Structures are given as C-alpha cells and as structure tokens.
C-alpha cells in the first residue's frame, strides 16, 4: 500500500507535500464540527468550471530533472465554486507533486487533480499537497503512468471572507527513468460458504484515502472486533481506496468498494462500485439531469445509492436533490443526535406517502475515536456476497442497531403468511395481522411500534435487555408497521438514544397506486337527537398564508372534537406535517378559520403526534397533546378563545415530565378533568386535574381478565353527568374494551362489548362521548374500515353497532381515525379521517 512518503529510489520533489499533509498532523476536529463549518459560509453562486484566475506564475529548475511552477491566485467569497490550474506535462515525466498554501482564516481549499485521461485523485481539504507516479501515490490519489499532455489541479475554495481568499499552488514535475507499476488485488464478490442469513455491516467508513485516520487494514481490524460481516470503504470523491488492496484482502469479511460523493448540495454513497470507478461530484440541483445521470450510472454498475446524513444542517452537507431519488436514506449517522431524529421524522413522512425508500444506519467513522460499526445494519441476504447484500439493502430487508450486542426479530403474520422488514404482507380488509418484535441486548429501553397513524404500542425492556412487543392490526387499516427501540437516557443533543430501528413491513400491494397521505381528509357529521345522521362532509382547509384563500379540504392524520355549551364544536386537526390546528363548527358551517396552535415556547412550528380536547361547563376547553419526543403537554383554552400556551404535564416526581404515546382528556361536571394515556412503557395510566389546576399522581390501570396492565394502540375517556367516567380502549389483540370509573374512584374492570356479528368488536380506532341522559355514544372503525356506532345505556346494556353513513348518505366510508363528542341537546358530533 502506498505511503505518504516517496520511495527511496524515486526523485524527491523540492517540497514533500504529502508528508506535510499527512492525516492527523495537526489539531483534530470532531467530524460533525467539520460538517457544520460550512454552515458559517453563505453559499455563493456556482462558478463556471473554468481555469482559475491566476495572478502570477513562475517556473524554476528549467533544464533539470525537477521543474517547479508556482501559481498564485485569488478566489471570491462563496462555497459553490470550482477552479482549475492547468499545466502541461512533457514526455519523460515520471512523477507529479503538488503543494498548496492558502489564507486559512479566509476559508478552506479543497484539492484534487485531473490528467489527460480524466480523474487522478482528490483529497478535499484533508491535505495541502500530494504526489503521484506509476509506482505509488499519496492516499486519495491514483497510482498510474504520468501521461504527457494537459493536466489540471482542481481547487474547491470554500471562502467565508467577504474579501476573498489568496492561494498558491506549486506544481513539480520529475523526469527520469520509467517507474514500475504496482498491480492491485481484486476484491472478491463473496465470502465462501455463507448462505442465506442475517449479516452485519457498516457502509460508511473513511480511511487515510480521504479525511479518515485509519488505514484499510485498521478498518478491517476494527470491523472484526465489532463482529461485522461486511464493510464498505467510502472515501470522499476518490477511487484510490479501491486500487490499493495488495495482499491485505480479508478472507472472513466482505469488502464492498464505495465512494462518498461529496457535492456542495449534499453527500451520497455510491456503494458497490467496481474498483477504479469514480463518480463525479461537480453539479447541483440546478444542473438538469446531472444527479439523475450519476445515479443511473451507479445502478448500471450494480451499485446502490444512499443519501448520507441528509438533514445535517450545514452548507454542502444538507441534502438538496430530493429524498426519494435514492435507494436508501442514512437516517442514523454515527452517535445519535438531533440530526438523526430529523432524518427519521422525514423518512417516516415518506413512508406515509407510500414511498418505499429503505433506511440504513452507519458509523461514518473517521478517526480512531469513532467506533466502526456503531451503528450498523443487520441485513437478511441470500448469501454474504456484494450483489445479495445490496439487493437486500435496496429492498429494506434490514434493520439498524447501535452495536453488535443488539438483535431484533420483527415479523408480521396473517394466517400462514409471514413477512419481515422490507417485505410485503398483502391483506384483505378482514384479515387480522399480528406484529411481533423480539428484542435482545437492549437493557433499560423502550420498544415502540409505529404505523402511519402514529404509535400503536410500546413496552419497557428491563435490565435483562430482552423483551417482546405484540400488536394486532386489521387488514388495510394500516399501510405499514415499523419498530424502534430507544433508551430514555440523554445523548449529546437529545433526551434519548436510539438503540435500533427497523425498516417497515408493508401491508399494501406494490401494484396499487401510490398511497398519498394528502388524500386523508378530515370529515365531520352530526347525529341528531332523534338518532338520524347528517351526511359526512369534508371540512374546508386552512387559509393560504399569502392570499388568504381557502383551497380544498383539511388534509389530516388525526382529529379530536369537543362539544360546547352554545351548540358549537371545537375541532382539532393534525396536519400531515404534524402541525396542530383548531377551528369551530356549528351544524354544517365553519365559524372561524383554522388557527395553528403554537408550541410551549410560542413557536409556530410545534409538531405533535396525538391530541385530544374536552369542553367544560364554563365555556373553556382543555387540550392535551404528545410532542414528537413523547412529552405530554396541557393547556386551557379560555372562553373567549384565547390560548395561554402549553405546559408540560408532571411525571411521577415533582420535577419530571410525563411521557406518553397516546393521550385523552375528559371533562367532569364539577370542572375537574381526567386524563388517560399510554405511558412510554406502553401501560395505561390515569390521573385527574382539579378545578384549582392541581394534578393527582399517575395511577396504572390493571388489564383485562386479571392482566397486570392494559396496553394497546388506542384509548378514549369521557365524563358522565353523575361524576363517573367511562374508558374505551383497543387492546393489543385488536379488540375493543370498556370500563367505568365510579364517582368514588373505583373501577369496574375492562369488559369487551359485543361486535357487529361476533362476540367481540375488532377495531382500529375508537371514540366515546357521555350524553346528558347518562348514556355513552361509542364510535369505532371496524375491521371493514367503516365507522360503526353504538350506545351504552345508563343501565349498562348496549345497542347493536350500526354503520354511520358516509358522504351523500352512502353506507361505505373507509376511515382511519374517528372521534366523537356530545352536546347538551343530546346530539353528537363525529370527526373522522378518511383512509385515503
């Protein structure tokens, strides 16, 4: 493997640039700090790919075997620019050496070189110089004959100074006898004797061939220590790593050749390239078809494309090419940070849109302080071969974990069919689907199951690190299911740590039209006191901030509704971006425009997972929500409509906050409130808020038929005229359960109401509302995806479930979520999100 120094028998340049710029020679900067350095530089306009503005050139050593030409120039302010220093190489030159200097206070000077036949090397800002010949080259540069003709040093100035940046380039050519070429070994495409199974690997690793500090041998040793089965060496913008394997290829580890294509508009991994292949980086989104052309080329070579750390907020690193234009997203990059949390949130939205883009996690290890394989991917492949591993990753047949200690078994079953991550389990409307997550190696963590409707179930994993999460869903009520495991322990920029994340199991056929969450519209209907229903109708959308006009209907993923004493109803809607909105309706009229509800700090961009609202006799309302990080918040809407702001709900201790996956609130006649929620451990809890604003302690409710806890994907609570409350919930078995909390605080215990034609009622969403006559109105989205309604009479008996008519009186109205509230006159309001 070439070293940074020239061989003893080679002509030495006047300045040993490669030695001076060796990795690690100088202050070490943390990897993500380097990424964010670009955020300090405002992006300048893209410069044309033209020769650099050389202010001065001087040559010395003419007539000798070593000739050096010095070029001086200046680059303007900006980051998105490339410049070239052209020079001619005469016949007989055996080595080229380049050294650069620049005003470091003004910015960064990336460096590379092109020869008559094209690319010959790149080191970015990791080096200030290099040398190359047929026999050897500085890491990052490709050994090979020095061809006579036109060469160019390429500069990538990232200039933060308004006055520009001065730089100098010294090009030295060495004449002499021809140097021998050193062939490289071909990386094998597979590891012998390894058939179908789960394999662990890290796809994002940097060596001394770019800005890393490990040799490839050191990377291999670190991968073995972590228990990996495959790695991809992905140095920045260079093919040199792939052509320097000589007698050091491991036989027990699959090595995949790759490149991190580092554009000024986002980084992406081209994984599975043939050795010696190089992928260009000199383009942006405005260059029509340039990125797509590079992706097509990588695919034609059998490779995989992955957007690397796409939402890292740094100039040049933030992804600008479209998240759905690659095979996979690197949602987890190195130690867990807020950047990764944003990546997962964006990826989840893509899943809700039906976009089957796989998620991966990689270490992006640069220095010995960066642990190789933390995180890494666990892939189910037909064998330990490059084509099989890349095919599995492309399909999402994988999950990502923090270390080799963690193992997941994530499956969905219906009848005799079973599917895992990245696979499809086609279902009819009436099929029950049982999803199971088995976890090992994750002590003191929380496992959570997600569908496009949010969190469906959660459970705590104790100190043993072993646990199981189970959930039953119904037919096409959900598009997919995926799982996460998190540790409730703060990291550098977050309140928790990701332990593992799976790709989704899909429930819809790939042959169906693309699923679109924007088609999920918020509908509203009323049940009159005589029991008749008005037709389902969509609520109008929010006004455009610029024009004030209202376009279309309100697209949403969740809703809640509270009936007011004046006969109106306050409606909450959660938009596809998880923004919380509020409006007021009466009969078929919307009384006020949608208002976006601000967050605890007054921010307009507050995002929530769940929300509920309850109306009180004094004309006020109380709202509870769970934020994206699971924190539960509460606020009281004044009688005049004012919103004073959210406050975090107290947890088990005085200074702690309550975390929940689902919340519901009920108003009692005396002005107190009762709250119900699934905690982050997946168990159901209850507390009360007195008229004075004081909160009782959280109490855990026992489950059905002697179970110690009750867990499930949905819950609702309502207050009754006599001071009691009633709870409706869906269990992990997918069945509806009901119980009563008496005025003295005692509970009757959960019991399942009878279904439409069966002994129990299966459902994917529910709602309950107490009415003035002491009965409770119940709604449920049944196994057929339609909304059903029943009444629990004051004596405890139930009416049969009957179907709520859809728009224009139609019986069929597929829905995904439903809520109900009651008014003083005995009528009820129902809000429902259409299933798309």
UniProtKB/TrEMBL annotation:
Residues 559-805 form the PLL-like beta propeller domain. Transmembrane segments: none annotated. Gene3D superfamilies: Fucose-specific lectin, Metal-dependent hydrolases. Pfam families: DUF8189. Residues 1-28 are annotated as: Disordered. NCBIfam families: CehA_McbA_metalo. This is PLL-like beta propeller domain-containing protein. It comes from Streptomyces nojiriensis.
